[in-house]
# Entry
Amino acid sequence: MVAVEEKNIISSHKIPFSDVVAKKRRNAIWNRVWNIRDMIYATVLVLVHLLCLFAPFYFNWKAFWVAVVLYWITGNGVTISYHRNLAHMSFKLPKVLEYFLLIVLPMHYRDIQSTGLANTGRKTQECSGFEKAVFLCISHENVLAPSYCTWNSPVQMGRHAFSGVGHGWHNNHHAFEFSATFQNKWWQVDIAWCVIRLLERVGLATDVKVPSESQKQKMKTYLSK
# Structure
């Protein structure tokens, strides 16, 4: 890790009247040292976006509604199963339901590759029409939110509340990682949290963890320093 960090530093200078050394790192894109794998990934991502330009020519309502349903299922599957239930143990489910969510819903994660942020699929299945948009949109949402809404940053992505099934409030998650909800205000729509609440109401979700008012106040005091 140290070798990688040093490789990314292109210049450094000492700040006057200080012992602090400022280091300028490579830009993630323009000053990047590209290798074959980077080029392949970049080419595939560009081609996937270009192929979406042909989607309107193959539009039909059946494919559209299939895309909408699959988008909702896979989006909720990732944030509810992989993220909130398994990664952060924000609530408990019966093992049968837990395995169902783990295996069936987040199907686009089958070829996942660990790259620091475990959010990028390695390849897509062959499909036609608007069904391609399911993978593309879910990939955008799952990569953008945790990358853009970083810890102790004021950035929120409320406009992605519906498309990201709650991931638009990712900064709230950084504040309370144990919480089953990304919603801190009543108007912050978290669709995945609505599903979890429904599961709790019918007795399928138990030990659902949410931050208390005192915890919220402590975090507010900490961030205001």
User: Anything to note?
Assistant: The first helix runs from residue 2 to 8. The chain has one domain: 60-223.
